């Protein structure tokens, strides 16, 4: 940790009596990517670490994930943590108030149509998973054969583009991944929304994430004078100022922050 670029800046900020916004992605950042979302469960050590971080009065701890809020609530019963599901479309504050940042009534018909098309596309093909998040639908192809993935994903994208209204929805991609979400499902805009509605003045935003959805937040955090930290192998140009090799290292970094700097 002595070679960390970010830690000295955070330490200086805390010593001035100022706060820190700590934004944490979950999958690929705090836990390794698993075969299915249900398999990526937090261990006791992670829950303990998050509890310590969230208990510090000078830190606002936020889990900002593509997972639905219901999944985050079940996995992370940690007091004082802000849980932001579906990239921030649905947010639970420490007081247990839930904010849904979209009008939900008109979403499901489009999502159902896309889900139905995708289900037919992957029928009888192994290695695919369709995840219905309520306010979004994702198609995972990480464990499909390259041939099947190369056949299915372009067709799935075309179907979604033909079905959705681009004013209300967006398509997210990734490593053998496709997802249709509300247009508000944007981690960068969620960071802005949270920071602009909180009286936690002069707080330094610090963001940990592992993929292109997090890059959207990295850009906002950098614009606000904060620190972005990428987790995992490089996937190209990044807005991050520091890179950690894996979730274990990210957790060790956070543990060091807690024990040595707070």
Please report which band the strand proportion falls in: under 5%, 5-15%, 15-25%, 25-35%, 35-45% or over 45%.
Answer: 15-25%
Could you state the CATH homologous superfamily of the largest domain?
HAD superfamily/HAD-like
- Would you tell me the structural class of the helices and strands? alpha/beta
Largest sheet data: 8 strands, mixed
The string of secondary-structure elements, in order, is HEHEHEEEHEEHEEHEHEEH
The overall pLDDT, averaged over residues, is: 93
- CATH architecture tag of the largest domain: 3-Layer(aba) Sandwich
Point out poorly predicted stretches.
Answer: none
Number of strands: 12
Strand order of the largest sheet: 5-4-3-2-1-10-11-12
> Helical stretch count?
8
Shape: globular
Given this structure, which CATH class of the largest domain is correct?
Alpha Beta
Termini separation comes to 15 Å
- Helix percentage range: 25-40%
Radius of gyration: 19 Å
Q: How many discrete domains? A: 2
Blueprint (SSEs and pairs):
Layout: H1 6-15, E1 20-24, H2 44-55, E2 59-64, H3 69-75, E3 82-85, E4 90-92, E5 98-100, H4 107-122, E6 129-132, E7 137-140, H5 146-163, E8 169-174, E9 177-182, H6 187-196, E10 204-209, H7 212-223, E11 227-231, E12 242-244, H8 247-261
Parallel strand pairs: 1-2, 1-10, 2-3, 10-11, 11-12
Antiparallel strand pairs: 3-4, 4-5, 6-7, 7-9, 8-9
Helix pairs in contact: 2-8, 4-5, 6-7
Please provide a written account of the structure.
This protein has helices spanning 6-15, 44-55, 69-75, 107-122, 146-163, 187-196, 212-223, 247-261; strands at 20-24, 59-64, 82-85, 90-92, 98-100, 129-132, 137-140, 169-174, 177-182, 204-209, 227-231, 242-244. Helix 2 links the parallel strand 1 and strand 2 (59-64). The chain is of the alpha/beta class and 262 residues long. The chain is globular. It has 2 domains: 6-101 and 185-261, Rossmann fold (3-Layer(aba) Sandwich); 107-182, Trehalose-6-phosphate phosphatase related protein, domain 2 (Alpha-Beta Plaits).
């Amino acid at each position: 940790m002595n070679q960390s670029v970010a830690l000295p800046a955070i330490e200086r900020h805390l010593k001035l009596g100022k706060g820190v916004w700590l934004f944490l992605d979950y999958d690929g950042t705090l836990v390794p990517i698993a075969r299915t979302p249900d398999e990526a469960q937090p261990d006791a050590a992670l829950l303990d670490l998050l509890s310590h971080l969230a208990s510090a009065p000078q830190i606002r701890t936020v889990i900002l994930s593509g997972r639905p809020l219901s999944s985050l609530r079940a996995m992370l019963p940690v007091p004082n943590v802000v849980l932001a599901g579906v990239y921030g479309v649905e947010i639970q504050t420490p007081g247990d108030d839930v904010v849904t940042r979209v009008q939900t009534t008109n979403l499901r018909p489009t999502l159902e149509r896309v889900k139905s098309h995708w289900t037919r596309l992957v029928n009888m093909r192994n290695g695919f998973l369709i995840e219905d998040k309520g306010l979004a639908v994702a198609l995972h192809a990480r464990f499909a054969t390259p041939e099947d993935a190369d056949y299915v994903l372009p067709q799935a994208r075309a179907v979604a583009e033909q079905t959705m209204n681009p004013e209300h929805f967006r398509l997210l991609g990734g490593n053998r991944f496709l997802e249709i979400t509300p247009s508000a499902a944007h981690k960068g805009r969620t960071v802005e929304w949270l920071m602009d509605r909180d009286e936690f003045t002069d707080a330094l935003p610090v963001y940990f994430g592992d993929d292109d959805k997090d890059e959207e937040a990295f850009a906002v955090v950098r614009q606000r004078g904060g620190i972005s930290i990428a987790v995992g192998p490089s996937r190209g140009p990044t807005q991050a100022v520091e890179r950690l090799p894996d979730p274990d290292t990210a957790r060790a970094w956070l543990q060091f922050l807690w024990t040595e700097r707070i």
